[in-house]
């Protein structure tokens, strides 16, 4: 009996200890959970206060930058303006020229039958953005926008209703455009045919679909203010800087991006990949950039899409030439060349200039009478390319406006990667200028990924940079991108 009682007491004691242990453990878990919740709440509160502070700064900043009001800025703008300023027809004509320089039609046109009506899909790492209608339609366009609304969008990236615009609209460059030029562009847009069309809504992932976050993006990637001329430079240099940095927004394609997709200013104009296409280094570095190009090479390329013995515009750059730069006057083209030849050279490590590669082929003699099996790049070249580019790769038509370009001394074939060559084979070339209507058919429906890779690798190996190789998998990825 005594033993039973003793065991019972011990059992009660051990059970009590177990209950106490369980209770203590549960209490610790609950305390940790509450601490975690409080920490998260505190972080959220701090972030919210910070965001509200930034919003307050934006809303109550009473000192906007107006650098274009400087006398020197006015003098340079007036001295190099492409047309007379003023009201009426002269202002509209000047605005049309400036809208061409800014290539507004390229992004704001998805259907050429309704120019400036928007709807073009722009792929970003965060989702798809569709460009807005900027025709003067009062319901779906900017017909009800005031001049101040338009000015604020161009200079500050803020829409009519106060919404933050995404930087797919290059207000980072347009902020440098003078008030007078923005007014002229608006005067021209008021005269285009109104199109009643509502583009699709943006398709951006959370949290990138929250426009207020652009306040944070702007904090690190946007410096609002008009172009400030350099008094130590010539009027021609300043005009070129104004166009390249501002209205023509060349950095949007030719400058690499940081992790926030802002411009990496430490590597300005050194080249970047855009939708599969390589926008090449346009700094004056002798091998990595265009340091060996003359002023006339730059002018010729921008006005016709061709710099003989160097480059032929394709892809998005062909569109830029067709829609924009071919319409610029010679003074502005020379100014752009002057400025580009003065910026800091950036070395990308290339051992030779892109246009310095290549030797004629002799594959016709070697292949005659032989049986070819499998996927053969030389055979594919002779079957699909030689009729226009000649079986030696030396082209047809020499330097005439409608010539079929040589593949030797060709910047696309001599590049350190085969992206642009593969994209040209896939999607072809379409470039219309006052000199020529250039058309190369694409082979995306005729050749599979393996064949296009073999063809591209043959072309780079024979006529260009033999280190530039592309795989069938990479061709498949490029095939799916918007041409």
Automatic annotation (TrEMBL):
Keywords (A to Z) from UniProt = Cell membrane, Electron transport, Heme, Iron, Membrane, Metal-binding, Repeat, Signal, Transmembrane, Transmembrane helix, Transport
- This protein is called what? Cytochrome c
Q: Where is this region: Disordered?
A: 67-88
Localization per record: Cell membrane
Tell whether S-adenosyl-L-methionine is among the UniProt keywords. no
Specify the Cytochrome c domain's residue ranges.
Answer: 90-193, 235-344, 372-463
**Segments traversing the membrane:** 37-56
Q: Which InterPro entries match?
A: Cyt_c-like_dom, Cyt_c-like_dom_sf, Cyt_C_IC, Cytochrome_c-type_DH, Membr-bd_ADH_cyt_c
Q: What is its main location?
A: membrane
**Cross-referenced Gene3D superfamilies:** Cytochrome c-like domain
Give one Pfam family, short name only.
Answer: Cytochrom_C
